[in-house]
Design a protein that fits this description.
10 strands; transferase; 3-stranded antiparallel sheet; 5-stranded antiparallel sheet; globular; 6 helices; 24% strand; alpha+beta
Amino acid sequence: MAELTDFWESFRVKFKGAPEHVQTYVIYFEDLDSSLDTANLDYHKARGLSRSITIRILAGILGRDPNGLTLPGVPPYDVGGCRFSLSRTTQAMALIVSTEGHRVGADIEQIQTLEQAEQLIKVFHPADQARLVSARLRRPKVRAITQAWTHKEALLKGLEVGLVRDPALDEVGPVKRPLTPKGWSLVRIRLPKKRGHVASVAWEN
């Protein structure tokens, strides 16, 4: 079981000031298997793969056999006292775990196209909309919009309300210094730009 934990530890992302009970992982599927054609990996296969990986990470944390673990289908997402949040694209996944059962949220997204960003910005708070449009180019800041969306999703997942709550109600704030409710931390995960993803995680303090 220690070998299992050590393997997944290489995918762990650590943040300055984050409590020990919070563990975050970012995994690009092609890093697990170079022969995996992630360009043609559909949502359902990515979902199954990310859930299988999550079970193995949780098994390593809990010191249990992964064959004996199942993931809940609805919140609260808790396995053996570990609260977790999982997000995936067809190429990568982000997972945050609290070993003390605190609420957590994660979101990872592929960078939007300009057309997608133009639609996505419409669901943000008006103050965010103004902040996320380039005054010089008079068009949406695509990467910043995608990052801001991961801030919003991670926090809403952590609060366990998801998009049932109107995303336009709450201001995200500056991408590098997002606004958070009292008692919460929210951070962006710094990912290589060439891999075309952005991600954020949130946890209850």
